[in-house]
Amino acid sequence: MAGNQRQVREQAAAPGSPLNLTGVPRPFGLLLLAEAVTLGIASYLHRGGHIALGFTVVRGEQYTSASVPEAIIGAVLAVGAVIVLTIPARARRAAISATAFAIFGFVLGTIFVLTSGRSSVTIDLTYHSILLLVLGTSLVMLALGQPRTAFARAAERQRLRSR
């Protein structure tokens, strides 16, 4: 049995394996990175930036009080993503910490949007709601789930079937 566990660990550590040794799937690191990118874009737009899409131009508004927190949360998520993708021994703690920090920031951001008195908050509230849902789901999966066990069992079953 110890030999089988070692094989599963070696398979998980192999380049291209979708699983880190700590049980955080590598695609989760990509999800953190995608969330960080959306925050970077939101921060840029809240600094008055414009994004040309070819068929239209997305025009931002000058709203620095939202831009700075978005940039900070995005940076924390990006650091968490890099750790998940490159340092498997610290992946779970980094993913949970970055996600919890982002949830805290998004809750404060949602409260800020609701109390800002701005007339056009629909897009901001939609964005906050969607990312809060994704972040909350991710945190629950990280905190309660043991993806390493499930992946390890699946890898073991696959190995046994291939004999």
Rg calculated over all Cα atoms: 19 Å
Q: Beta-strand level of the residues, as a percent range?
A: under 5%
Helix/strand order: HHEEHHHH
Q: Return the average pLDDT rounded to an integer.
A: 81
The poorly predicted ranges are none
Number of strands: 2
Distance between the termini: 16 Å
Strand order within the widest beta sheet: 1-2
Number of helical elements:
6
Describe this structure in words.
This protein is mainly α. The protein is 72% helix and 4% strand. The protein is built from 6 helices and 2 strands, in the order ααββαααα. The protein has a two-stranded antiparallel sheet.
Key words describing this protein structure:
single chain; 163 residues; mainly alpha; two-stranded antiparallel sheet; 72% helix
Give the helices and strands, then pairings.
Layout: H1 2-13, H2 26-45, E1 50-52, E2 57-59, H3 64-86, H4 91-115, H5 122-144, H6 147-161
Antiparallel strand pairs: 1-2
Helix pairs in contact: 2-3, 3-4, 4-5
Give a nutshell description of this structure:
With 163 residues, the chain is mostly helical. It is built from 6 helices and 2 strands; from the N terminus they run ααββαααα. It has a two-stranded antiparallel ribbon with strand order 1-2.
